Structure formats: C-alpha cells, structure tokens
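Q: What does the assembly look like in three dimensions?
Context provided by user:
Components: two
Sequences:
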Amino acid sequence: MIRVINVNKSFDDNKVLDNVSVSFEPGKTNLIIGRSGSGKTVLLKAIVGLHDIDSGEIWYENVLFNKLGFEEMKEIRKEMGMLFQGSALFDSLTVEQNVRFPLDMFTKKSMEEKTDRVNFCLNRVNIINANRLFPSELSGGMKKSVAIARAISLNPKYLFCDEPNSGLDPLTAILIDELIKELTEEYSMTTIVNTHDMNSVMEIGEKIVFINEGVLCWEGNKDEILKSDCAILNDFVFANALAKQLRASGR
Amino acid sequence: MLKFLAKLGLYFTLLKKVFSRPEKPSVYYKQTLHEIVSLGLNSIGIVMVVSFFMGAVITLQTAYNTENPIYPTYLIGLGTRDSILLEFSSTIVALILAGKVGSNIASEIGTMRVTEQIDALEIMGVNSASYLILPKMIATLIFNPFLTIISINVGILGGWLAGTMAGVITSEDYIYGIQYAFIPYYITYSLIKTVFFAFIITSVSAFHGYYVDGGSLEVGRASTKAVVHSSILILLFNVILTQLLLS
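A: Here is the predicted structure of the complete assembly.
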C-alpha cells in the first residue's frame, strides 16, 4: 500500500501538485490519468522520490518515504521496479545485461542463477532469442517489454509505469497493458500506471485517479468512470470522436 | 556571483555522492577496467600523433631561434626535452584530452540523463553519481600518467627525427642535449600536474553531463561547457601548481 497525503509541489511560481491525497492498493493496477501537463508525471516521480515535494507525506506501508535519508531511501528503492516512458534501457548493454543489471548490483547469485532468472523474466514478457541484441536493435514494443523484464527481475513489491503505451501501436499497447496487469496479479505488486490512453483505462483500470491542473478531481474504477458526473473528467474521457459517438448513441 | 556559488555547491555535493561507499565493488572494478579502455587506451593514438608533431615543431623552432655560433647545438635537444617535460606533455596533452575525453564524458552522462537512464539507476537503488563517475575518475587518474609518459617519449622521438632529417642537429648532439643537466624531478612535476588535470577533466565534465536539463540541444551545450570549463581550470591550476611545485 502506498499512501500520498496532502502533497504539494511547485516549480518556481508554478504549482504543479495541489494538496493531493490518494492511496494505491496492492495487487491492483492503479492508474493516474489526466491531460498532458496536468501533473501526473510529477506525482509519479514524487512518489518514487525523483522529485522532492514541498510539503505532505508519502508512505510505503508504514514507512514515511519522503523523510528518509539517501541510504534508507535506497533500501526501499530496491523493492521498486519502474518502466519509463522512453524505456530507459542502458544503451551500452545488451538485452541480457540490462535485465541482469539489478541482479549484478544487489544479489550474490552465481552467473548461472542470474542467467536463469534473466531468461525467465524475458520469457515472461515474451522476448525470445534477443539476449544479445542492443536496445538500438529493438522495436518500441520490445524495448518496453525488456524494460518490464528488468523491472521485475528482483521481484519488486512496487511497479511504476510512466506512459507505458506512448509511441506504440494499439495492438502492442494492449499486449503491454495485459502484461502489466498479469504481473501485478501474479506478484501481488502495488502497481501505479501513469497514462492518458483511454484504452488502458478501460482494459486495466482497477483503480483510477484523475488529476487536472495538479488537483485530484476524481477517484473510481473503470466501471464508474463512464457514469461519472464530473464534467472535466467527462471532457477527458469522451474527447475522441468514437467515444463521443458512443456516448451520443447512449451505448 | 550567487549563481556561481550555487553551481560550486552543486559540484561539491556531486563529488560527495561520487565518493560515497560503492554498492558492489566488483561491479565498479569491471566498470573501471572498461573505462580504462574507453578513456585511456583509446586516447593513445591521438596523444602519440599530437606529441610526435609537437616534438618535431619544438625542435625546429628551437633550432631556428638559436641559430648562433655561440650556442652549442645540443641546446636544441635540451630545449625540446624541457619544453616537453615541463609544459607540453602534461598541460597541452591535458587540454587535448579535455576536448576528447571531456566531451565524451559530458555527452555520455548527459544523454543518460535526458533519456532517463540515470533515473532508472536511482529507482533501482543504485548511487548513479558514484556508479557512473567514480570508475571514469579512477580510470583517468590511473591511466593519464601513462599517457604523459608516452607523450614525453614520443615527443622527444619526434624532435629527434625532425631535427636530424631537417639537418638542424646531429643525432649525437640531440641525444647529448636531452641527457644534459637532466633534473628527474621534472618528471615528477609533470606527473603530479597530470593527476590534477585528470581529476579536473573527469569531475568537471561529469558535473556538466550529470545536471543536464532538457534534450539533445542541452547535451551538446553541456559538452561544450565541459570542454571550455575544464580547459580554463587546467590553465588556472597549471599556474598554481607550477608556483607550488617549482618555486
């Protein structure tokens, strides 16, 4: 369980997060949605400690994360996996070395054990026979899958995904969404996905948080989102032509 | 002034992070070996080429400026040796390495910053500053003195070849000149300067790369700043170290 309590964050005079309070439940895919520039990436980066917050509290179980020192924070971070928008694979390492990296850094396993774990993780995300390829040789979807494999290599308790579908075709995007949902259930992780893709919302949104101009406007799930009476949320949800038509036809 | 002090504070904060305890020494050891190849061995070629021609030019210029029957010709060898030992192989080679190695470090780390690879390291619980910068620093501190020694030898060789081929000095006079009134401390002085300059090149370039904010344009700017600031600091510390070590 991750709890965010009264979090505020500004960049100079620009208030990006305004008194945000929300909790994210384990074993569920929690989605943060909102328009571009609404503050969802800042919230996600604040939760993982990449942005310092101005005030408020961020709790991981019963540990006050944002007040921890650098070394203590590192211990919690070893339980995190994160999928970045651009995948953030290490360019100079092969696929296998990328996935093995956390194991090299934080375990005392033998090379054979590490290789087994790497192959297991790569198989789990459906990446076959690509161990020796470099990130520059992979497609966008494969990069995301390898990044997920790297994120789960240490069996994390928390998985964070920043725009996992950006730049992917609709079919690959669905595969990535399904993979995130399956892994969340399989490992009982607390997963937070940051997205503005309504397909993801309807596929995997077990808990959805809508942020607008740094303010948390709405919380619910994928069944409730279509029936919401929050005007700003409805503008966002029914922004595209197909959704508008479906809404107009009452479906 | 405040901006400068803020940057200086940030630089020392980064150094503190760099020198904190490594997560896994064996990984750092492998990384250091990799950096010795990448930053050190790959620089041998350019150091040799530049040193050879600089040695040749120093010899020819010394010969044309001492064209007087009063001066013994072996002084050309002595002049070449001292110029190379005292100034060229440490300072000029450091300036060249600031361009090659410095821009390489700044652009590599800067690209990792803008593509969120550094964030990925932090999320894993890795001290990104230490993991990325410390092996580069150790590699250059270990290997740059070897580059200086190579530079000294190749420079003197270049001087000998140019001098004898141009007919401005005989082989015997040149060899006598480079041995005449030799002060071994000059080598120590040159190597001490090299170590300081290696630290400046790595730390300043890494600092500019690590704190890049933006995209590829900013990475390019950071790379340029890394070279300019490293070069200025090398020249400044050259004066300070010369005063401290030779006075």
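Follow-up: Chain A touches chain B at residues 45, 48-50, 70, 74-78, 80-82, 84-86, 88-91, 101-102, 104-106, 160 (CB under 8 Å).
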